[in-house]
Each structure stands twice: as structure tokens, then as C-alpha cells.
Amino acid sequence: MVATALRGALGFLTRAPVGRDEAAWEAFRTTPVAFPLAGYPVGALAAVPLLAPGPSLVVAAVFVAWCYALTGINHLDGVADLGDAAVVHGDAERRRSVLKDTTVGVGAVVAVSLVVLGLWSSAGELAALPTRAALVVVAAEVSAKLATAVVVCLGTATHEGLGSALTDDNGLRDLLSPVVLTLPAATLTWPRPASAVTVLAGGVTGLATLLWARRRLGGVNGDVMGATNELARVVALAAGVTTWTLC
């Protein structure tokens, strides 16, 4: 069951040609532990460009390009939609209508730009650090998946669709396994605390995004889940890099 769910997670969270069948999807959507489990191989692959020699800023640019080549830009689309919804005036219903609007507004441009710039700047710092610092990328990816699991397990969907498919069969008790499976990622840079701070930052970002969505949107949907993954990754990376540098 978990192996099938992992295939489904990789198919949903990356561009890997696996887990696109109905059995994998059904196993994935009812097994939140597959989120952080998928974070380990995805994070390891994402970190590969940081191991290559070259100017740190160039390596960082390659990292960002490779990251989205690996995971796709569907989740980044959620960042764009939430960016527009965040700046619009009105009630929750008005904001939800903006999420469905295909027009790209200023909020979307700013939100996506900040996320991409955040990834690039953190990767640039990591590229200039010892090779072992690349483990922060693995921790960040696992924590981003934990953040998404937080939304899935604690969120309530605003309408029937992708969001409800993931939230309806999961609850608070289902969050325990994802949290436990994330703990090894917190030890990756031991005795340095960078990976622990990275994991914590991603989890807190997931909870913060969930609370914002409840207040501003009345619940969660696929855009919120995708944006949570991207926001948690960039915040976690920044926290990890900063901690490595200072500690």
C-alpha cells in the first residue's frame, strides 16, 4: 500500500513517468505519509546541481531550472493564484473567484518572482558552502511535503475537486505518520542544527498557510496545496542556509 502510495506521490508531485494510474492515485490520496516519503528522493535529486563546480550564482540558476524541470510548475501556478487572491479586496467568496480567474495579476507576478528569487538566492549561498550543506535541500523538500500534508490532514476543502479528494479521507490522526517520517530529515546535518531548523520552518509555513486560507478563503483547495509546497520549500531553504551560516 505504502509503495503504491509513494508511486502516486511521485507522479503527483514530480514529472517522473510513474504513479499515473488510478490505483497509485487512490493509494496516494488516502496515505498522507507518502508526502514526506517522496520528499527524500526528490530532495536528493534536486540537490545534484549544487554538487557541480562553478560560480555559485550560475550553479544557483541551474538549481532553480532543474528544480522545476524535476517537479514541474503546476504548484508554482498555485503561488500565482494565491498571490492574486491575497491582494484582491473583498470577502472569501470574492477571493475564491480570483483563484479560478486565468488572468495573471500583479499579485501573481510578485508572488512567483519572490519564490523564484528566494530559491535562487538560497541556492547561491548553498553552492558556496561545503558540499555537505546540500543536505539542507533534502531537508527542505521533505519539510515542504510535510507542510502539504499539514494542509491535507487539517484543512477543509472549499468545494468538490482536487482539494476535497485529498482532504475528505484524511484528518488529524493521519498527520502523525508524516511527522514521524520527517524526523530523520531533521538530523541530516547533525551536529549542525541547519536541517532541524529547515524542517521546523517548513512545517510552520504549512500551518501558517493553512490558517491564512481558512481566514481569507474559507478553506483550502488545490491551489493552496500547491502554493504551500512552494512556499514551504523556499522558507525552509532560507532558514536552513541562514542557520548553517550563523551556527
UniProtKB/TrEMBL annotation:
<dbReference type="GO" id="GO:0009236">
    <property type="term" value="P:cobalamin biosynthetic process"/>
</dbReference>
<protein>
    <recommendedName>
        <fullName>Adenosylcobinamide-GDP ribazoletransferase</fullName>
        <ecNumber>2.7.8.26</ecNumber>
    </recommendedName>
</protein>
<feature type="transmembrane region" description="Helical">
    <location>
        <begin position="104"/>
        <end position="123"/>
    </location>
</feature>
<keyword id="KW-0169">Cobalamin biosynthesis</keyword>
<comment type="function">
    <text>Joins adenosylcobinamide-GDP and alpha-ribazole to generate adenosylcobalamin (Ado-cobalamin). Also synthesizes adenosylcobalamin 5'-phosphate from adenosylcobinamide-GDP and alpha-ribazole 5'-phosphate.</text>
</comment>
<dbReference type="GO" id="GO:0051073">
    <property type="term" value="F:adenosylcobinamide-GDP ribazoletransferase activity"/>
</dbReference>
<keyword id="KW-0812">Transmembrane</keyword>
<keyword id="KW-0472">Membrane</keyword>
<keyword id="KW-1133">Transmembrane helix</keyword>
<keyword id="KW-1003">Cell membrane</keyword>
<keyword id="KW-0808">Transferase</keyword>
<dbReference type="InterPro" id="IPR003805">
    <property type="entry name" value="CobS"/>
</dbReference>
<dbReference type="GO" id="GO:0008818">
    <property type="term" value="F:cobalamin 5'-phosphate synthase activity"/>
</dbReference>
<keyword id="KW-0460">Magnesium</keyword>
<dbReference type="GO" id="GO:0005886">
    <property type="term" value="C:plasma membrane"/>
</dbReference>
<comment type="pathway">
    <text>Cofactor biosynthesis; adenosylcobalamin biosynthesis; adenosylcobalamin from cob(II)yrinate a,c-diamide: step 7/7.</text>
</comment>
<dbReference type="Pfam" id="PF02654">
    <property type="entry name" value="CobS"/>
</dbReference>
<feature type="transmembrane region" description="Helical">
    <location>
        <begin position="44"/>
        <end position="68"/>
    </location>
</feature>
<comment type="similarity">
    <text>Belongs to the CobS family.</text>
</comment>
